[in-house]
């Protein structure tokens, strides 16, 4: 009898479910876009840091070589082998900077991180990007707490 006056009660329920589904899809797309945008910013930041490191080599390599030459000259002039002590740190630093700028340092770090993750499952860090399921789980955990 009331359905005659108020219409079909189930029809509103279906609309509500449809609206919830649409809102959930929009939220999923928003989260996916945020993840993609964050990854793009991270790639851009890594590229910028690499370019900055390569540009800094223009100053570090010549200055390191000049310090090394002065140390060698001072050693021959004074006959004191202690004047060669700056060569170790200078050569180590230049080697590290050159390896960082032109070597495969990032690939080496990622490979070692993958080995650590394979051997130790308790580590919370993951190399894969965040998925929607993980975001939903975290949202659910936050609602419970």
Quick gist of this model?
This protein is mainly alpha-helical. The chain has helices spanning 2-6, 9-78, 87-102, 105-119, 132-144.
Overall SS class? mainly alpha
Number of domains: 1
Largest sheet: none
What Rg do the Cα atoms give? 30 Å
Assembly annotation: single chain
Based on Cα principal axes, name the global outline. elongated
What string, H for helix and E for strand, traces the elements in order?
Answer: HHHHH
Mean pLDDT: 83
Characterization of this structure:
By secondary structure, this protein is an all-alpha fold. Helix content is about 80%, strand content about 0%. It has five helices and no strands. The protein is elongated. The model has no long low-confidence stretch (mean pLDDT about 85).
Layout of helices and strands:
Blueprint: H1 2-6, H2 9-78, H3 87-102, H4 105-119, H5 132-144
Protein traits:
145 residues; mainly alpha; 5 helices; 82% helix; 0% strand; elongated
